[in-house]
Amino acid sequence: MLAAVASRTSPTDPLSALEVVERPRPEVPDGWVRVRVEAASLNHHDLWSLRGVGLRDEDLPVVLGCDGAGVDEQGRDVVVHGVVTTPGWTGDDTLDPGRSLLSERYDGTLAEEVVVPARNVVPRPPGLSAEHAACLPTAWLTAYRMLRLSGAEQGGTVLVQGAGGGVATALVALGRATGRRVWVTSRSEEKRRRALDLGAHAALAPGERVPERVDAVMETVGEATWAHSLRSLRPGGTVVVAGATSGPAPSAELQRVFFLGLRVVGTTMGTRDELEHLVGLLAATGVRPVVDRVLPLADVGEGLAAMAAGELFGKVVVRPGG
Ligand SMILES: NC(=O)c1ccc[n+]([C@@H]2O[C@H](COP(=O)([O-])OP(=O)(O)OC[C@H]3O[C@@H](n4cnc5c(N)ncnc54)[C@H](OP(=O)(O)O)[C@@H]3O)[C@@H](O)[C@H]2O)c1
């Protein structure tokens, strides 16, 4: 089967480490299921993997991809949950110390087939396309959980940093659909305009003063926006952190954190049950992911290059079947 693979890693030139090659059809261990992948989506995780973040030499080669949707061997439409927990783990999937994301210890979804534990497939309802469903398990699930952890309920105000990203566009769409007031920042005027079209109530340039302090900030950009995130919070507000695209080591600004009683909450992905709720929410509301482009697997490098250059608005979907 055809697959997008990291066969080596390169911290400085991640795309040079990408190969789209034929791989043997995967075996199916007891208790796992085979899914024919109709659509997968790209994440920054794929770029981090090609850079060598979270992968050791002995893990290579590995099939990339955390997100997928397709058909199982019983012919059921499914969405693949990307967090693989230790057998017997019963707590929150994301807090299992032995958890891994697809494409770390186990081959990922950027292939014609993927095998996953049976609990890692969630039914896909009619009306939710494979292309849209493939956007949910990483970026959208992370956004869904970020909003739940934000402490900003219906009517509360949320600031989303870096409006064009896969997580950020999910935050805008879900934040709006769940009754929050959503403000965004983006480096690009065009992306600010598109965020307003998507439902944001206001769009600001990076670092611009917010009209009033917000209840929560959704942070995935990191160093470039961290100071602005803390400055924009009301006393007692919450910054939820799920990424650090521009760098992981801003000044912590601890005086501001303790003096204003701010909460800093980290999160990664979400649980299988949260993915099932998210799928249900999309089915019920008609909210759908923003798809920047759809590519055949052979052109996956084009999507990763656009992501590395920060050129995307929304998700890149890949169709392994062409
Ligand atoms: N913890 C988790 O479970 C989880 C899940 C998904 C993603 N993540 C992480 O979250 C981050 C975003 O993921 P994504 O899939 O949304 O990525 P993406 O689609 O590539 O979006 C990244 C966004 O960050 C902004 N950005 C990038 N560099 C910037 C800079 N130097 N200054 C200001 N803004 C910058 C850009 O927004 P503008 O161009 O609009 O300014 C860009 O659209 C990644 O680091 C990823 O690894 C974590």
UniProtKB/TrEMBL annotation:
Q: Which GO terms describe its molecular function?
A: oxidoreductase activity
- Pfam families in UniProt: ADH_N, ADH_zinc_N
What SUPFAM superfamilies is this protein classified in? GroES-like, NAD(P)-binding Rossmann-fold domains
Domain (Enoyl reductase (ER)): residue spans on this chain:
13-318
The protein's name is D-arabinose 1-dehydrogenase-like Zn-dependent alcohol dehydrogenase
Q: Which organism is it from?
A: Pseudokineococcus lusitanus
Print the organism lineage.
Bacteria, Bacillati, Actinomycetota, Actinomycetes, Kineosporiales
